[in-house]
Give the backbone structure.
Amino acid sequence: MTPALEVAHLGKTFAARRGPFGLFGRRVVRAVEDVSFAVEASRTLALVGESGCGKTTIGRMVVRLTVPSAGSIAVEGEDFTRLSGEALRRKRQRVQMVFQDPFACLNARMTAEAIVAEPLVNFRLGDVAARRRRVRQLFDQVGLPQAFLDRLPHHMSGGQRQRLGIARALAAEPAVIVADEAVAALDVSIRSQILNLLKDLQRETGVAYLFISHDLSVVRYLADEIAVMYLGRIVETGPVRSVFAAPAHPYTQALIAAIPAPHPRDRRRRALLDGEVPSAAALPAGCPFRTRCPFATDICSREVPPMVTVRHGHAAACHHSKQLLHDMTTGGTTT
């Protein structure tokens, strides 16, 4: 079965000026390097990691707001990166985005009805009457009252605006939705409602989600698969249950250990991260994580670790992943 979204060896570099006014020339910043993953229809892949790891850059490349420097992005089997002109415009219909800030991404001068209808107009889908019916159907799907059709965004709450953004993303019946921190700006109670809405809409429509987040509690609830990123690379990937139950990369172990525990008795031993994240313009030799890793050895400073399968569908890019996983599952001392 062809995945709804397939990314292969994706890379993105930026040229940044050095020093005041760029007096010391330019340097290359590797924001994303050799990233590959696939998302099936009706499934959710979560991209997680610290700020600056490259996950938002990947999301922007998937919807072609940013042009990749290397690699390919296939939507329903067609290479999205090779399209241009009318072919690109038609394919954009199949890839939509839900942004973090539900207010900044909406036109403050347009009514809610016009905002949701805008993709239908842009992609020339249906006549005026058909668009009106589609907008009303979408309002019902996302839980917005029909009385809100004539409202402006600033007359709506944050949760209502995010529902409006989701309705707009669904309007053209996409195969893939990129949700970039889609619930990060919402209150906890509203966040749970939006997460449940996203689940319900996925069951109804079969849309695939690329869900970008730093909140692992949200990811554990919503996602089917997870890809953990560090300095532009995926360091661990696999089914959510497998990765949370037995993380095989020290960075993933630290992220999971940092999830707040609901009760003091549930507090786990913390796998703390030492040091600062290295600059993407001056990556350390060998494993990018070795400068913060408590288990680093000589080989880590010489060789970039390959992605190695540690169990079915679960892989990690760490020279010591199998030993770490063994120690964790047998009660060893590495975690």
About this structure: The longest strand covers residues 26-39. The CA atoms of residues 32 and 58 lie 7 Å apart. The two ends are 38 Å apart (CA to CA).
